Amino acid sequence: MQRYDAVIVGAGHNGLVTAAYLAKAGKKVMVLERRHLIGGAAVSEQLYPGFTYSSCSYVCSLLRPEIMRDLDLPRHGLQVNPYETSSCPTHHGEPLVMYHDADRNRRSMSRHSARDAEAYDCYSLEIRRQCRFIKPLLMMTPPDPTSFKWGDIEGLLRLGRTFGQMGERQMYDILRFWTMSIADFLDEYFESEIVKALSAGSSIIGTALGPRSPGSAYVLLHHYMGEVDGEIGAWGFARGGMGSVSKAIAGAAREAGAEIRTEAEVTAVIVKGGKAVGVALADGEEVYGTAIVSNLDPKRTFLKILPRQHLPEEVYEQAERFKIRGSSGKLNIALDALPQFKGLPYDAHCGAIEIGDSLDYLERAFDDYKYGQWSRRPFLDIVIPSTVDPTMAPPGKHYMSVFVQYVPYKLADGPWTDEKRQAFGDTVIDTISEYCPNFRDLILHCQVRTPWDLENEVGLTEGNIFHGELTLDQLMFNRPFPGAAQYRTPVRNFYMCGSGTHPGGGVMGAPGANAAREILKDFKGRVLS
Amino acid sequence: MSEQYLRETPFHDRIAAVASAQSWERWQGHITAVTLGGMDREYFAIRNSASVYDVSPLIKYRITGADAARFVDRLITRDVARCAIGQAYYTPWCDDDGKVIEDGTLFRLGKADFLLNAALHNLHWLRDTAYGFDVTIEDVSAEIAGLSVQGPLAQTVLIAMGIGGLERLAHMRLAETRLDDRPMRVSRTGFTGDLGYELWIRPGDASWLWDRLMAAGALYNVLPIGSAALNHARIEAGFILVNVDFISATYALRPSQKRSPYELGLGWAVNLKKDGYFIGKRALLAERKAATPRRALVGLEIDGRKPAVDAFIYAGKREVGRTTSAIWSPTLKKNIAIASIAGDQALPGTELGIEIWHPKELKIERSMVGCRVVHRPFYDPPRKKA
Q1: How many Å apart are CA B165 and CA B34, to the nearest integer?
Q2: Which residue, among A241, A237, A435, has the nearest Cα to A353 in the 3D structure?
Q3: Mean pLDDT by 10 residues, chain A (529 residues)
């Protein structure tokens, strides 16, 4: 019988990162994936001839540069092409377009507010200050302040030192930033509604918070702490779609000797004598290993594949209470030609287009959701990767990714049906058509995905794209919950490496890399045997 | 009105019309663009779709006459006998001490008809060394305009434009063709290390070519670029630049700064076995007999991400060299540099230290990090030669 040093459940990008690091350290690694393709929510799929869809995640920024370099991902085919604009069409006057070039951006923003165009510099600086504090935390195991272990104390000291370097006012600001709402934060800088709305988009993507909910400011930060080639906050398209991120990581893992099996669904973790020793597959096969690592979200990890009798009741309850509310949907659309959004210059079609031109618009979209309905006028984060990446669609035709906020996992009027999915898709297309009148005529094919679909196809519980809400009560040493926040679980030899662990989701790879480091530490310290 | 200092290239009107960034520099007496609308986008066009760069300021010498082949063979370090008609040769040429005057591309247009593309003025050197040969050497720079089309979609775009036979044109080969009844030379050459072509035309056809290319390229994200993006790509491709990575023997004030082809990593382009004498042969033969070259121009991979511009390199405490070109490579996600270092430290895999000074909010910070010698090119996609 084959026995592995590590068996990883789920070939999402984090599982693959863990596999690659472990294999590079000489461990014998097996990755087991339920689906026919690897990558989890970072996949490229051809659902219409000639078109490649980034069918779940669609843009790349957060993937840690350390990981790209350690695993030499460019050599395995990863190329990230940055885009340079974000824009917001509106029915009230001119659209807002924000550019990469500072002068051009100031000129464009001052059409809405000369004051805001200048405030933007202060605002970006503040965001960068906040990111400077967070960035060193990403690739470290979050220290637990209740523990008196040397590693935790050392980590806290390191944090304290960075914190101490910041000056009194900034320390206050950090605490405010991590808890306040994005609306309050933006009010401190900007007067123009459309400027606030365009900035607030990043604070609601993927969460069950509205722009006026406390904690939403942090979510914005989460989207800004990435970079493309040192350009903080920049986003790009992975050439060939997000699947090429997973493919590159898998390439690095395989090169280092890891095995990856698809269509191998893990149904249960095998626990013997309080120790995880292997996994059982849907077809009855068992795979044994020293370390068992779950890339699944905390709910699926603790409530689905780990038999309940091996779990302390308190942990089970914590897992049940874990907030993982799905709030996002996705439309993947093949288009016969480039759509023309009202008032937007060509350049703006090559970047992010956000629908939702005021904080009220966004908050109302959230209001519908709170009571179990999809937003009647949803917030949309639209990108057309084929404007930059020629591999996504035939020449002259385009692939459009439409991220939709908000759409509930559980509808007030009963379960999702095909008719409801269709109606939801129509709502989104109608919303786009408001700004792009002939939009419907351009559609060659359209895939509509609700949170329910994301759960059932990809395995994201409730369709939550981050494997759990990014609020302070579920971050750092609280992610996913106290006592399980350092990639270890209450069951010996059973680890977690998914986005439900620190520092969270967004195709960052950091949870996977951090988990691998902790697992290797345990191998070395003979905790794992 | 006073006389303009700089010349405009034949493509200037078209480029100026799209140069929103208004970022210009000089290139051999011409005004050329550093970037047109943003260096990042232009760089990624080279690696992701197709880029267009005006190479008209290149200096071009036509060498013809009964002795043309004999003369060129004496001039350059490679063996002209092996250069077929319709082939392009990348080659250095040296002074009598075997020190590199320049490196450039030689097009063999006929049995006794060559075109030498250079970055610096060489006419005095060429005419002087041609003494006794039955050759004519003319500076034809102003008679030929050039446009470089580089990137994974370069071939697709040019085919869409109507240029025939490109699928069969091998790397470093030339084709003489016509489009819209206008003559055009296509060479599968470039300075990006990617799939790419250079189109050579009569200057009067410049606007026509530009418009044709932009029309054909509209569906393929074809993007005109400036020198900043090109420089990034050429460093990734490991191409060296005269008076940046080495000083031309003609321009070096101090003899110690002159470099032989071996010292520049161009030993592969020196054919010591070819018949007869070529300029610098005696000195290069002697140098070949010595154990290791005194200096070496190598590729470095550097820890961290601060571009190691003008950085000193150490082996332990001994200072062994300096970087000549350095960038963060967006494609490789690596910090890379071309560096001139002591010959005994040049073996790939050699671990060295590097001292990088970088500005940070009016402070200059010093970081001492590790680096290692690696093979150039840093980036060499199969499509370049496929």
Answers
A1: 33
A2: A435
A3: 92 98 98 97 97 96 94 96 96 95 95 97 92 88 88 87 82 88 96 97 95 94 87 91 98 98 97 96 96 98 95 94 96 98 96 97 98 97 97 97 97 97 98 97 98 96 96 92 92 97 95 97 90
Query: Looking at domain A3-42+242-323+466-524, does it have CATH number 3.50.50.60?
Result: yes
DSSP secondary structure letter of residue A300 = I
CB–CB contact A84 B40 (8 Å): yes
Contact predicate B154/B216, CB 8 Å: no
According to the CATH classification, is domain A324-461 in 3.30.70?
A: no
Instruction: Find the DSSP H helices in A238-334.
Output: 243-255, 298-299, 313-321
Domain boundaries, chain A: 3-42+242-323+466-524, 324-461
Strand pairing category for A266-272 and B196-201: unpaired
Owner of token pair 């999915």: A421
Contact A100 B332 (CB under 8 A): no
Q: CA of A394, closest CA in chain B: separation in Å?
A: 9
B30, two tokens = 């011409």
Helices (H), A56-95: 65-70
A3-42+242-323+466-524 matches A324-461 in fold: no
Note the helical H segments in B237-320: 281-289
Q: What is the count of residue pairs from A and B with beta carbons less than 8 Å apart? A: 51
Residue (of B365, B311, B300, B305) closest to B338 by Cα position: B300
Contact B334 A73 (CB under 8 A): no
Q: How far apart are CA A198 and CA A180, in angstroms?
A: 18
Contact assessment for residue A371 and residue A412, using Cβ atoms and an 8 Å cutoff = yes
CB–CB of A82/A234 below 8 Å? yes
Tokens of A423: 């109606």
Residue of B nearest to A397 (CA): B219
Cβ pair B38:A387 closer than 8 A: no
All domains of chain B in start order, with CATH: 12-56+144-225 (3.30.1360.120), 291-384 (2.40.30.110)
* Alpha-carbon torsion, ordered B164, B168, B172, B175, to 10 deg: -30
